[in-house]
Amino acid sequence: MSVKNMSVLHRAGDVSYGLLGSESAVDDLVIEVGRTGLSGFNYFHKKFGMPYEFLLKRSISSGHVLFAATDDSSRLLGFARFEKIADEVERIHRGKKNVVKRPVYLLRSIEVHPSFRHIGIGRLLFAIAVESLKSSVITLPDNFQAARFFREKLMFGTISENDCTVSARYKDYLLLSYPKARVLLKTIAENYPRMVMPELIDSYESLMFKSNMGKSISRRDLNRFKELLESSTHLVDGKLLKEMNSFLSKFTVKS
User: Fold this and answer.
1) pLDDT band at residue 253 under the 50/70/90 scheme
2) What is the pLDDT of residue 34?
3) What's phi and psi for 134, nearest 5 deg?
4) Which domain holds residue 17?
5) Which of 54, 114, 202, 203 could pair with 225 as two cysteines, CB 3.0-4.6 Å apart?
6) Residue 86 falls inside a structural domain
7) SS3 labels along 109-150
8) 182, 202: one domain
9) For the domain that residue 47 is a member of, what is the CATH number?
10) What is the C-alpha separation between 251 and 215, in angstroms, rounded?
């Protein structure tokens, strides 16, 4: 079951990552809220008594950019809300338009369903979001553990006094500059390929196992692997990509 008005940007296993395009998209989500004996989203509900449907719809109606991770049953697994605080600056030189300053977005919140934490969904959701935004991102973590996560896992850093990317009012925030944001998804994919491209890795390992065991491999399985590799080439680590291409070039298909 798909979520209407959600533009899917990436799939990993049975999880879809995408951009919610309208308030009506929220109506298609299955949102589990944490209660006694039931695991679910709880941060905003506990801290502000705010219904999640209202929070997400209000975010979209306010002009915020809302990304979500859902499973094949349209259950919400995680979401990330961004607000643009600085526009892109362009300059025309000799008739050619160049971007001299990327837009800046404030990460207002990111939350993952408690039952699906610590498996990379939040990290991948954020990386896919900034890949889509093509911008710098700032955030203000509300505790030490969160700040450490943003620094160590998502490549954020302190805003320096000489940094003119954002207003001085945000001097205490953490910054993910555009050059780092641009390569974040690929960096995560290179370090955790199974998290980002589980179908590709499973297919490759299955074919390698069959080949090493002297078992026949169908043309269908090999073509499936080729399709997965072609769609993920931009994310695969150079060494692994070379291994996969070498495997394909030497392999004799046994139908």
Assistant:
1) very low
2) 87
3) 50, 55
4) 6-192
5) 203
6) yes
7) EEEECHHHCCCCHHHHHHHHHHHHHCCEEEECCCCHHHHHHH
8) no
9) 3.40.630.30
10) 12
State whether 171 and 237 are in the same domain: no
Q: Is 41 left (phi over 0), alpha (psi -120 to 50) or beta?
A: beta
Q: Taking every pair of C-alpha atoms in the chain, what is the biggest distance, in angstroms?
A: 65
Backbone angles phi, psi at 7, to 5 degrees: -85, 110
Question: Would you state the structure tokens that stand for residue 192, as one six-digit string?
Answer: 């955790």
Report d(CA 133, CA 84) in Å as an integer: 10
H or E element at residue 104: strand 104-112
Q: Has residue 34 been placed in a domain?
A: yes
pTM of the model: 0.90
Distance separating alpha carbons of residues 209 and 204, to the nearest angstrom: 9
Region 174-194 average pLDDT: 95
Q: Write out the two tokens for 18.
A: 């995408």
Please determine, for residue 55, whether its predicted confidence score (pLDDT) is greater than 50: yes
Residue at token pair 């090493």? 212
Task: Give the 3-state secondary structure percentages of the chain, helix then strand then coil, rounded to 5.
Answer: 45, 25, 30
Classified as helix, coil or strand, 9 is strand
Percent of the chain whose predicted confidence (pLDDT) is above 70: 92
Q: With a cut of 60, say whether residue 105 has pLDDT above it.
A: yes
- CA–CA gap between residue 43 and residue 146 (Å, rounded): 14
96, two tokens: 């050619």
